[in-house]
């Protein structure tokens, strides 16, 4: 078992704009009204990089910025784990379309945005960060396994870790096979020991033979959790928002990640 504290949280999704608003929705204080995600611009990036980056990178940076600001940590110094199941599907679709078109050319910008670690790379550029950053892709289990990686690094290195999970729908032929609905992302700043202002502690365990339990999310949010890999974090976010102790089961490969939430 590993214990970490959550110092900062961010959420962006349909009708979910930032952690304070999302927490009210998950607590039942406000109705969930799905709406297009309006991600703020990546102001940390120089003008040229800001023009080149796409929606996936802007989402990841918005999540990381809010979580770090809430936690009161320096973005340039924190280690990072960026997790996405799909990567930038829109860019990949554009490249494949160009390659299958006579005379089609692929721009260098499209090519460098196609790599899985592009959002993590833009984040380090924007903050001139030399801290270690990892980009993970673990199919439908990217949230759970990304959280496990971030918690392990936090404990082993005895240092704060930024964990960001994000996925967008994929257009074109790939999107008809790899179906992802809506835009969703969330981020956590994990610290090895609870500090003033910590949201909660997480006791995280990997259970190879355990099965994930049914979620208690409202039907619409449960559907969002099923239809976007990064939104698999909604059950954990709901438990944190409730302000009560409880254990969340998240499917990984193999087994289950168990996160016991204890409010601070």
From TrEMBL:
Gene3D superfamilies: 3.40.47.10
Protein name: Beta-ketoacyl synthase-like N-terminal domain-containing protein
Molecular function per GO: acyltransferase activity
Segments forming domain Beta-ketoacyl synthase-like N-terminal: 34-246
InterPro entries attached to this UniProt entry: Ketoacyl_synth_N (IPR014030), Thiolase-like (IPR016039)
């Amino acid at each position: 078992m590993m214990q970490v504290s959550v110092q900062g949280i961010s959420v962006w999704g349909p009708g979910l704009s930032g952690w304070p608003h999302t927490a009210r929705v998950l607590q039942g204080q406000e109705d969930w009204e799905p709406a297009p995600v309006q991600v703020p611009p990546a102001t940390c990036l120089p003008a040229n990089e800001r023009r080149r980056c796409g929606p996936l990178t802007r989402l990841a940076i918005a999540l990381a910025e809010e979580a770090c600001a809430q936690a009161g940590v320096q973005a340039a110094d924190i280690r990072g784990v960026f997790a996405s199941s799909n990567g930038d599907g829109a860019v990949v679709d554009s490249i494949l379309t160009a390659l299958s078109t006579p005379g089609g050319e692929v721009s260098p910008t499209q090519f460098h945005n196609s790599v899985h670690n592009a959002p993590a790379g833009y984040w380090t550029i924007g903050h001139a960060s030399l801290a270690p950053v990892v980009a993970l892709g673990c199919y439908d289990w990217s949230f759970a396994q990304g959280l496990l990686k971030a918690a392990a690094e936090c404990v082993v290195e005895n240092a704060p870790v930024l964990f960001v999970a994000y996925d967008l729908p994929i257009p074109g032929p790939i999107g008809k096979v790899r179906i992802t609905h809506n835009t969703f992302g969330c981020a956590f700043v994990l610290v090895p020991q609870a500090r003033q202002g910590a949201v909660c502690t997480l006791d995280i365990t990997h259970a190879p033979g355990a099965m994930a339990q049914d979620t208690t999310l409202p039907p619409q949010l449960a559907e969002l959790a099923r239809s976007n890999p990064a939104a698999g974090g909604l059950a954990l976010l709901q438990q944190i928002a409730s302000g009560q102790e409880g254990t969340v089961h998240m499917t990984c490969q193999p087994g289950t990640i168990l996160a016991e939430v204890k409010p601070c």
